[in-house]
């Protein structure tokens, strides 16, 4: 079994600098959190980081803008962790297009029902953006 170093950072004003530093120091993949006002799947540390990011004006548009301008400085793949509400508000197709255009490798969407993840995978697979499913100890064996 191969072990990977996959650090998580909340989107912030120093996103590119932080992600570049992580990628230059052994990160295999970087998980970038998109701040959300109602992060029901997050623990207290990530919730607090998200609230601070929101106060600083960090949005999905800001994150996409930074990745579009400077994402080539990040020397490993990166994924976004975001809530489905953000994707819906942005527009599913536009969101997947923007992910593709900014080099996003995949998406972790913690509040996405499994059935909906299957539809998104089929509908938007041609953009090359992976949907990374979360599995808990209570997940049904049929999944």
UniProtKB/TrEMBL annotation:
Cellular component GO terms, alphabetical: cytosol
This enzyme's EC code(s): 4.2.1.20
Xref: Pfam families: Trp_syntA
GO terms assigned for molecular function: tryptophan synthase activity
Assembly behavior: Tetramer of two alpha and two beta chains.
InterPro entries: Aldolase_TIM, RibuloseP-bd_barrel, Trp_synthase_alpha_AS, Trp_synthase_suA
Matching PROSITE patterns: TRP_SYNTHASE_ALPHA
Principal EC category: lyase
Domain of life per record: Bacteria
Name of this protein: tryptophan synthase
Catalytic activity as recorded in UniProt: (1S,2R)-1-C-(indol-3-yl)glycerol 3-phosphate + L-serine = D-glyceraldehyde 3-phosphate + L-tryptophan + H2O
Family label: Belongs to the TrpA family.
NCBIfam families on file: trpA
Keywords, comma-separated and alphabetical: Amino-acid biosynthesis, Aromatic amino acid biosynthesis, Lyase, Tryptophan biosynthesis
Coiled coil: none
């Amino acid at each position: 079994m191969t072990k990977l170093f996959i650090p998580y950072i909340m989107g912030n004003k120093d996103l590119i600098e932080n992600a570049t530093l992580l990628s230059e120091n052994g990160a295999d993949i970087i998980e970038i959190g998109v701040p959300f006002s109602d992060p029901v799947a997050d623990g207290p540390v990530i919730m607090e980081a998200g609230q601070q990011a929101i106060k600083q004006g960090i949005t999905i548009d800001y994150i996409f803008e930074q990745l579009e301008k400077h994402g080539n400085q990040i020397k490993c793949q990166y994924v976004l962790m975001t809530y489905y509400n953000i994707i819906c508000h942005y527009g599913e197709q536009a969101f997947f297009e923007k992910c593709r255009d900014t080099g996003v490798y995949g998406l972790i969407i913690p509040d996405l029902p499994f059935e909906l993840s299957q539809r998104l995978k089929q509908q938007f697979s041609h953009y090359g953006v992976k949907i990374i499913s979360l599995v808990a100890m209570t997940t049904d064996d049929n999944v």
